[in-house]
Amino acid sequence: MAILPFKRVMCANRGEIAVRVFRAATELGFRTIAIFSEEDRVHLHRYKADEAYLVGKGLEPVAAYLAEDEIVELAKRHEVDAIHPGYGLLSERASFARKCRDAGIVFIGPTPEAIDALGDKVAARKIAQAAGVPVVPGTPEPVKSVEADAAAAGGAVGGDHPGVRTEVVGRVLGGDPALQGRAVQGDAL
Question: Rounded to an integer, what distance in angstroms lies between the CA atom of residue 130 and that of residue 156?
Fold first, then answer.
């Protein structure tokens, strides 16, 4: 028995994520619809869905899964109630979420406005701070260059003087001596 008022759910993705979406949708009583590129015509996700349709004929695989207009038109033609984008590909595209909404199809994910707002890391940081969510130390604006940020931290970049690098790295990393030492030695953090 379905909890939500959906009958037909499309996963606009491929591979394991699509298989997982189909499994969950089936458990909830939904009919599942897959899309596939020409190269994925024999992939498992196509056969795990109740129905499967080719998208992006003639396109490279990734381009086929990013064909927003074709996917929405296909969903309308086959009376899809909701589209789950999976992850990657269309999941972070506000334009796709908006097209689904405009077509009367539920986008299973954030609103287009949330995707727009949180897709920009600087804007997302400001939203989190305004909401009282703790954030890690960082710059309030986008980084323009390593040199400018090093200067803002009170040091310089380059040269063979480990003391200067340690001081700059220390300020950027919040003064953690263990991280400073590893960063100055060139180790991955």
Answer: 32
How far apart are the C-alpha atoms of 59 and 66, rounded to whole Å?
10
Q: Are 14 and 36 in contact (CB under 8 A)?
A: yes
In 3-state terms the chain splits into helix, strand, coil percentages (rounded to 5) of: 45, 10, 45
98 neighbors 111 (Cβ within 8 angstroms): no
What pTM value is reported for the model?
A: 0.71
| Residues 35-52, mean pLDDT to the nearest whole number | 96
Residue 118 has pLDDT above 50, yes or no: yes
The closest of 53, 42, 40, 41 to 11, measured between CA atoms, is 53
Tokens matching residue 65 = 């899964």
